Structure formats: C-alpha cells, structure tokens
Amino acid sequence: MMLRLIFSVLCLGLIDQAWAADPSQPGPLTSSTIEFRNLVDVSRTSQKETESGRPRLLKIRREGEAKAAGRPVPIKVHLPEGPGPFPVVVVSHGAGGDWDTHFAQAKHLASHGYAVLCLEHVGSNRERMTSGLRLMKNLDAMIHDADEVLARPKDVSFALDRANEWNRDHPKMKNRLDLGRVGMMGHSFGAYTTMVVCGMRPALDWLTPRIEPGKGLGPDQTDARVRCGVALSPQGVGEPFFIQESFASLKAPLLGVSGTLDKQQNGLTAQNRLDGFALWPSGAHAFVWITDAKHLDFTDSSGTERKAQASPSRDDVQPVAKAATLLFLDQHLKPENKAKLSSEALNPYLKGAVTDIKVYLK
What we know:
By secondary structure, this protein is α/β, with parallel strands linked by helices. The protein has helices spanning 2-21, 103-111, 126-130, 135-144, 146-169, 189-197, 271-277, 314-333, 343-346, and strands spanning 31-36, 40-41, 71-72, 75-80, 86-92, 115-119, 177-187, 226-232, 254-261, 286-294, 357-361. The chain has one domain (2-361): Rossmann fold (3-Layer(aba) Sandwich), CATH 3.40.50. A nine-stranded mixed beta sheet has the order 1-4-6-5-7-8-9-10-11, with helices on both faces. It has a two-stranded antiparallel ribbon with strand order 2-3.
C-alpha cells in the first residue's frame, strides 16, 4: 500500500512538472489501448423503421462482425500506466471519423494522466461517409439525420455507463477510473455532441425525418457526469444544429477552439463560430480564436483531404489545440495542478502559420 501511494505521488509530481514545461508536449506516463468493438446499446433502436414496422439494423463498421439490434457504440480506451484513479475524458469524432480520428490527442491526454474513451458513432463514421464515394452528399445527409444527431449524445452516456462497470470489475481498469472527474472533447460534429452533453439544446428545424413539433428546441440531453467540455470547431447559430435559443441552457464549463479559416457547411462563415460564443451564458467558459486556422487543422487525421492537399498550417495549429485542451481540462478536473488557460499561456505557440491567438473568457 505504501509503495502504491509513493508511486501515485511521484506520478502526480511528474505530471505537474510536465505541464509547467510545455502542455503541448507529451507527459511522463505511457499508455496502452483496450478495444471494445462489439458494444451495443440494446435500449435504443432507429427512429426510422422498415416497411414491416421492425427497427432497422445498424451496422458495425469493422468487417467480420455481425449486425446487432440496437445501437452499436465501439469504444477504444487509452489507459495510462499506473494505479490511478485517472480522470476520464470522452472523445467524440467529427463526421466521417472513427475511434482513431483523435488518436494523437487521446495519447497526449493519457500521457498527462487521463483515461480517454474514444467513441465511434456508427451513423456518422468513415464507412458511412465513404459509402458510394458520395462524400459531400453523405456528409450532408448524416448531419441532418435525426437518428444520428440525437443519438450521438446518448452514445456518450452509454460510454460512461460502461466505464462505471469497467471500474467495478474489468481486470485492467478496476478502481483505475475516477468517474467523479469526467470531461469531454469533440471536433465538428463531435463539437456539437460535446456542446449538447454540456447542456445546449439541439434544433429540430432541419432534422430528417421530422421530429415533432418540427421546429424549436430538441430534447435536453445533458449528462451531469460530464463536468467540462472542449469543442473544437464549435457551431454558432444556423443549419443544421443550433438556433439562437439553443445556447442559454449550457451548464458545464466549455472551451471553444476555432480559427479565422474554419469554414462550415451551408455557407456559414468561420466568424459565425465566434459569434455563437456571445450567446453562451456567463460561466467558466472560454474561446480560443486562432488566425488562419482551418477546419481540419484541429483533428489528427486529414478526413477527406487528399494528402497532396493537406493543410500546411496543421502542424502549427495542433500544439495550440493540445495545450489549450490540456490546460482547460486540468483547470476543471485537476485543480491541484493550478493550470489556467490564458493568452499568456498560449503565446509560446505563435509560430509559423499561427500569427495571432486570442483567448476570450466569460
């Protein structure tokens, strides 16, 4: 018992030291991954039904796996080495992603002492995006799909329920997860998911099939277990996710991270993302605004980008996103680290394509 206590104290000391040096760099802990490919939330079925009236079956992305009634929710866990217990961060990918879309970010957080649960949302994953090679048509369909838009936040709650079980009896995770300290991170469609789990309300206006009453605010899908969130490329007012009234119900502290070239669908500008921040209620919220940062600069993978067209600014933007994310999570989940997100803390990352970083607080 004494050895375990000493090891824990040493790990905490190393993490403090690593943060003080550079929060964009890996921390002192190594990590391993645990894959749960066949998890299914049997309590859920699709909004859409076949002509026979039976719920449609949703397909797990990976080949060789059977179809399952309900909603599959594959999860990859990045678990730090050491006794823990470690605070938990749930990661939600964007449209066309998978559980490895934020692999580098997850590994980074794990190295700083977070257990990271990377979800795969089966209705908006890589398989659905690339089906029939109709990328833009598929993208438009999935972000308006009532099933997927309303199912994603429930995937997060399902994952936390499973984490509670793993913390009780999983041979590698028993008593190693601190489920009293839970955060969340997501990009694009994953940012929407994070914002809704933290308290914002989705709009019904653009969903297909129609969800009664067809306009206005959708259901409250807050999960109070999530104490803070990080939304990379968060949305403002407009199709397909939010109306002006969506933001007032935000509960958990939220960080938005975007940039001046972070364009959106439906002709919405990057500025629309920052304008949305003005509608967030007062609280422990923040917004990082990076000059010339593009949409895919905030994700590890290139999404639909061709390698020959990869963003030249990604390598400069990634350290800003990593540092801001870690500082914000530490601020709210590890107050003992005395981390604080500020313009001064991000000034060291004014390099290359990143010529200006603004941090707004409210």
